[in-house]
Amino acid sequence: MKNYELVVHPAEDGASMRKAEVVGCLDSHTVVGFERELQSVVDSGANVVVLDLESLSYISSAGISALMGLTHRLRKSEGELYLLRPTEKVRRVFRTLGFTTIFRIVDEEAEVSSAQGK
Fold first, then answer.
1. How many other C-beta atoms can be found within 10 angstroms of the C-beta atom of residue 65?
2. Is residue 5 assigned to a domain?
């Protein structure tokens, strides 16, 4: 059962940053496939991942756990995960559970470049 879509944008030549859009919902039914797709993004050489959450309609604790795992893997190799433009509903979940201090949540893609020192 796949009620989400992960659209991964091609990397620019030599770039270690990858951008992807998440559409739909992330829950216990979809998280295994989502984690597998995210791992392939990291395995392709990405150490900075920007996930555009503008079209993510729902995230459960299973989805948050997948994002935590990705954050941990990326930070272990001095990389980072950025959550771009989460919907108000998704942002409220992060805020309620206290994850706004753990995740790097940005509203504009330019904030990622600024944070990366570029």
1. 14
2. no
Query: Taking the model in full, what pTM does it have?
Result: 0.91
Residue 39, Cβ neighbours under 10 Å: how many? Answer: 14
Compute the residue count for the chain.
118
Quick check: 47 and 79 in contact, CB under 8 A?
A: yes
Q: How many CA atoms lie within 13 A of 108 on its CB side?
A: 5
The DSSP letter of residue 10 is P
Number of compact structural domains in the chain: 1
Distance of CA 70 to the CA centre of its chain: 8
The secondary structure element, H or E, covering residue 70 is: helix 61-76
pLDDT in tens, 11-22: 776 678 999 999
